Amino acid sequence: MLQINIASSIPLSDSQKKKLEGSLQKKYQKEELQFNYQIKEELIAGLSLSVGGKLYDASLRARLSQLASKI
Amino acid sequence: MSKSDIFANLGSIKDKDLSVERISVGKVISYADGIVFTDELQDVQAGELVTFDSGVFGLALNLEKNRVGIIVLSGLAKIKTGDFVYRTGKILSINVSDEIVGRVIDPLGQAEDGKSAIAVGKEMFLEKIAPGVIDREGVNQPLQTGVKAVDALIPIGRGQRELIIGDRNTGKSSIALASILNQKGQDVICIYVAIGQKKSTLAQFIQTLEDKGAMSYTTVVSASASEPASLQFLAPYSGQAVAEYFLEQGKDVLIVFDDLSKHAQAYREISLLLKRPSGREAYPGDVFYLHSRLLERACKLNKENGGGSITALPIIETQANDVSAYIPTNVISITDGQIYLETDLFNSGMRPAINIGLSVSRVGSAAQLKAMKQVSGSLKLDLAQFRELAAFAQFSSDLDSATKKLLERGKRVSEILKQPWDLQMSVADQVLMIFAAVNGYLDEVEVTDLADWEIDYLNFAKSSNPKLVAYLLTGAKIEGTQEEALEKLIKDFKKAHPRFYKKEV
Questions:
Q1: Catalytic pick among B362, B387, B409, B412
Q2: Does the interface ipTM go beyond 0.85?
């Protein structure tokens, strides 16, 4: 079973979760997925998603730190 | 960077620069004793800098099949299990600029003295391969320590690695301190790396440097006993990184590691906690490489590479004079000689408590000043004969006059090697004293009067023949004329100060 950890700054609504799970299930078609939700206020806004040893960080915090490194 | 530059840069950043990237992360499995184990963290390099969610930095040391061992570079890290660990893609480095001289920094290059942050200069890697043979040249310039016994008998050259070894409280740090103080006006940058020392001792040390005006050319890298082992382990490499910054400018640098026994212990702690196999005295297998790669970076570069040098004075503390323990033998074999200090000598009033017989300098004599070389040749002989006879003479009461004479000479020669730690002697002063001792001009003076004789004689020399003193300061060879002048000087002094010569031998 593949663990998917989803962190967000505010709690996600059920419809948002459903949408997210649906699109992820499409991406990982063959595998059985387990979704773990987590609230991380330090993300400021947006989502971060970790699958296995990979992190997809789409939070405002990550954007800001990318911006800071580009300046 | 000015405000307008920031806005100009902002305009040039495209939306695609800020896209969501796929990055490798690990999760903290365990955190104890400053060691973090994480799962996964794919593609991490050995020795790579990593960061944690809380912004703390770590260093990936152990790459194993299913986990990565990381040392945390902070004592009070807020790390929870499940926290993410991010790669930075960077090898550990510190920021060094010219401003670093006169400052106290921690092993990560942050100011420790409460003054402003170090200005941005160059990123210097903590771990670096030492310069190769082609870039180097032989040690050919002396580094005067201002200590008679060292400069005369165990001369140190610029680019040399000379170990200072001895039990606790034998004056190891004092010799290093004296060497730093003596570099005033010599255009040498000094770096003092304190590893696992008491903060009170270090504060005192820095105060002394400040009082004597030595802080203007000295940088102190501090990882005191309260810092975690990870920082104590990195401290000497940071010091070396600072030294290399000045080496690149073609400068001469003196670096003191005080002390490498504590450094080895810090590394042993890390290694054991990382569950690396332990060897002799529980040190890990690569404890030799730990010190050899550090000290190998001391060097004398040739003219094409700037001609700079790094002279290293590592310090090792022994237990009960045991130089055959693991770490002492390792470092002895890495360095170009050692200054061996003994408790017995220290307690018998010999300061500095250097055991001349066991101390050597393997490369320094090539760099020794000509004048010093001339006078110290017979000094070594006198001392060797004295040591041999002194042991022997304890058994027999009546000795022939030749033996007696040698013994008396030996007593005086060892007496003049005594020197208070905070007195730096110039080349001229050293040559004046040693010349007098080895040529028998002190045989008529009582041993107990020698300290006073020295002070009066050196003052007398400076006032009555400043030209000769100036010549000796250059360290050039003593020719016939200077020798005559030296002899005349002592005779004049004898006439002017008859109080030292009451008893005729």
A1: B362
A2: no
